[in-house]
Write a structure and sequence with these properties.
Elements: H1 6-16, H2 19-26, H3 33-40, E1 45-47, E2 62-64, E3 67-69, E4 73-75, H4 88-94, E5 100-103, H5 111-117, E6 122-127, H6 133-145, E7 150-154, H7 164-169, H8 196-204, H9 211-220, E8 225-230, H10 233-240, E9 246-249, H11 263-274, E10 279-283, H12 289-297, E11 303-305, H13 307-339, E12 352-354
Parallel strand pairs: 4-11, 5-6, 6-7, 7-8, 8-9, 9-10, 10-11
Antiparallel strand pairs: 1-12, 2-3
This protein binds flavin mononucleotide.
Flavin mononucleotide binds next to helix 2.
Length: about 375
């Protein structure tokens, strides 16, 4: 059967992948309330299309943070991609040449390998801050040297959220894979009885991370810093004072604190607070062109996708990643045509209404 939308890729990936990696990729934390909400909250928003507008000059190209992109859809960092496909991060980086590829610190290919494999891709490096600051500094310097163009500092992971599937599966990296940015024998993802990745994070990541560390990083690196994992206007306002260049409104794909808002619900208060002063982007639950249209209408300058890319990668490596991105671009183009829009910058909040606006009992 032809795979024509992201959910087709999701179903196919579920057939292909072994249980433990599939559960790791797909699941969220706790009761997975926010996991469901991230996708379903989009369905509570309605697009208000305009008609009789010449839409023959449509163009999904845009400029985000100074980068010219084919479409405002970028790649979120996701860990351990070689569990999905033998080429892992290298296939993803090569498949995302016309947008932004973000590489996870917890990758199964090294910074240098990705830098070499995809010299023409706009590459961002996602950073976790380790208790070992020398190791952290070294990661930053390696990313700078390998041609990465921004750092994405993840700020919502002092510890990892309780992902029950991983605990049940005693998740660990398959024997033939390793976290490729580290040579230290201790830095492996192996279960000591629970989820190997949560155990790794608890022993390695710095839970004292705070706003001073963000300022330190901004001073330390030559690269622009983007904060990922902000979902309140209070934190967005604090981000403004750090010298970082943008934020990604994210709840880590619903893998951290369960029952937080869907990111599309959190986006408006953040855009209102800081949208005129800083680039605000969003990830979480984006699966269709209409989802992208809605996020842009609510003020995001770009969206990031996590799981859809893993599904494409699992199904067909680099080709699968490219197909998923093409599907999203085509669906966005179609939504623009049918909503009466030619340019990304024309999409605004007049095109969107919450379902409560249409409450028939109010009539
Ligand atoms: C399997 C998986 C691994 C992830 N690994 C990381 C990571 O290493 N660093 C990080 O900042 N976020 C990580 N995330 C969160 C994503 O960057 C992103 O916020 C999330 O996937 C977006 O939601 P979506 O999957 O619904 O598109 C991961 C998400 C998934 C699903």
């Amino acid at each position: 059967m032809a795979l024509v939308c992201v959910s087709d890729y999701e179903k196919k990936a579920a057939e292909i992948l072994p249980k433990s990696p599939w559960d790791y990729y797909r699941s969220g934390s706790g009761d997975q309330i926010t996991l469901k909400l991230n996708e379903s909250a989009f369905n509570r928003l309605r697009i208000r299309p305009r008609v009789l507008i010449d839409v023959s000059r449509r163009d999904t190209r845009c400029n985000v943070l100074g980068f010219d992109l084919d479409c405002p859809v970028a790649i979120a960092p996701t860990a351990m991609q070689k569990m999905a496909h033998a080429e892992g991060e290298l296939a993803t980086a090569k498949g995302t040449i016309n947008t932004i590829y973000t590489m996870s610190t917890l990758s199964t290919s090294s910074i240098e390998e990705v830098g070499e494999a995809a010299p023409d891709t706009n590459k961002f490096y996602q950073l976790y801050i380790y208790k070992d600051r020398e190791l952290t500094k070294n990661l930053v310097r390696r990313a700078e040297k390998a041609g990465f163009k921004a750092l994405v500092l993840t700020v919502d992971a002092p510890v990892f959220g309780p992902r029950r599937c991983d605990i049940r599966n005693k998740f660990e990296l398959p024997q033939h894979l390793r976290l490729a940015n580290f040579t230290d024998e201790k830095l492996i993802v192996q279960s000591a009885g629970g989820s190997g990745i949560n155990e790794y994070v608890a022993s390695q990541f710095d839970p004292t991370l705070n706003w001073n560390d963000v300022e330190w990083l901004v001073r330390f690196t030559k690269l622009p810093v983007i904060l990922k994992g902000i979902i309140t206007h209070e934190d967005a306002r604090l981000a403004l004072q750090t010298g970082c260049k943008g934020i990604i409104v994210s709840n880590h794909g619903a893998r951290q604190l369960d029952t937080v808002p869907a990111t599309i619900e959190a986006l408006p208060e953040i855009v209102k607070a800081i949208g005129s002063q800083m680039t605000v982007m969003v990830d979480g639950g984006i699966r269709t062109g209409t989802d992208i249209f809605k996020a842009l209408a609510l003020g995001a300058k770009a969206v990031f996708v996590g799981r859809p890319v893993l599904y494409g990668l699992a199904v067909d490596g680099q080709n699968g990643v490219e197909s998923v991105l093409k599907i999203l671009q085509n669906e966005l183009d179609s939504a623009m045509a049918l909503a009466g829009v030619n340019k990304i910058t024309e999409i605004n909040d007049k095109f969107i209404a919450h379902e409560s606006t249409f409450c028939l009992s109010k009539l």
